[in-house]
Amino acid sequence: MAAKIKKGDLVQVITGAKQERGGDRGKQGKVLKVFPDANRVLVEGINRVTKHVKAGQNSSGAATGGIEVVEAPLHVSNVAVVDPETKKPTRVGFREETVEKDGEKKAVRVRYAKASGKAL
């Protein structure tokens, strides 16, 4: 099955706690990484968690470690791709379009936003 969400897509969180309560629902961000085996996506600025990192040293001798804030992966069912035209979440569909290249026609699968019909 083809991936409906890919790296670089603009997505919006559609489930979880509201922003007024400290949650991420309604926030938009760019997909940094996709984990297809776990059905999860890493979204920039979304689902930030504190992580305790063991103290150590880097190659220049500076101390590392402490408490860091990093993004954690979200399940793909909790995010929706943002329509490029309306800037609202939409479902993703696939359609075949014919492209002419070097004088011959070729069928290409294209992802599109179902709300507006625009290609993603």
TrEMBL record:
It comes from the Bacteria. Coiled coil: none annotated. Residues 46-119 form the Large ribosomal subunit protein uL24 C-terminal domain. InterPro entries: Rib_uL2_dom2, Ribosomal_uL24, Ribosomal_uL24_C, Ribosomal_uL24_KOW, Translation_prot_SH3-like_sf. SUPFAM superfamilies: Translation proteins SH3-like domain. Belongs to the universal ribosomal protein uL24 family. NCBIfam families: rplX_bact. One of the proteins that surrounds the polypeptide exit tunnel on the outside of the subunit. PANTHER family: MITOCHONDRIAL RIBOSOMAL PROTEIN L24 (PTHR12903). This is Large ribosomal subunit protein uL24.
